[in-house]
Specification:
two-stranded antiparallel sheet, Uracil-DNA Glycosylase, subunit E, single chain
């Protein structure tokens, strides 16, 4: 049975109880509302921010003038600008639109909850954009839940994308959104401590620019 976001929030609350923070309404996607300008979907994990507990009107804290989140958005904008995009040319959303009581990296129920959001998110995108519009993934957690394979194969190790050992995008037939997926991760590799900042990988930047829709 298809559910909208509000209905799914209630299901999540019933399933996970107090691990779901339902004090705040769900942030909306951030975009200008002009389909012809959108070159990609920019996808995050969820809006949870347990340190400050700020309620956001839009995904990725858009509209919030807290200094920490202004800096947060600047870092993301730098990633977008590296591949010729801006906030004006992406549809910005979180896979999980709800808040949790635990930050994403420490959240033991995140993947289960994210699985439940996939159908809602896919329908949201399909109503707005053709399936050739790629999805930029800001976290490897997103790839883990979106792949049709139960376990992420070694070829999809982050640095194998970045050094072009593994071609991008992840094909639509291999993921549950049925759209091209392109990793644009943040932070550093836990094993090598190499930063995922796109400016460190000029060849990868060039490849992404080649893939993104023109015009």
């Amino acid at each position: 049975m298809k559910m909208n976001a509000s209905e799914l929030l209630q299901v999540l609350k019933e399933k996970f109880g107090d691990q779901i923070d339902d004090r705040f309404y769900l942030p909306k996607a951030f975009w200008l509302g002009e389909k012809e300008m959108v070159k990609a979907v920019y996808l995050g994990c969820d809006p949870t921010n347990t340190n400050k507990n700020i309620r956001f009107d839009f995904a990725f804290s858009h509209g919030c003038m807290d200094k920490g989140f202004v800096t947060f958005r600047k870092k993301h904008l730098k990633q977008l600008e590296a591949i010729g995009l801006s906030w004006k040319t992406v549809y910005t959303q979180n896979l999980c639109r709800n808040y949790f009581k635990t930050e994403t990296s420490k959240n033991k129920i995140w993947k289960q909850a994210a699985e439940m959001w996939i159908d809602v998110f896919r329908e949201e995108l399909d109503e707005l954009f053709s399936t050739d519009i790629p999805v930029l993934l800001t976290s490897q957690l997103l790839l883990d839940v979106l792949l049709k394979e139960e376990k992420r194969p070694d070829k999809y190790d982050a640095l194998k994308f970045y050094d072009l050992t593994t071609p991008i995008p992840v094909p639509a037939v291999e993921n549950k959104l049925e759209r091209p997926l392109i990793p644009v991760y943040r932070g550093v590799n836990g094993r090598t401590r190499v930063s995922y900042q796109l400016n460190n990988f000029p060849d990868y930047i060039q490849k992404i620019r080649e893939i993104l829709p023109k015009g």
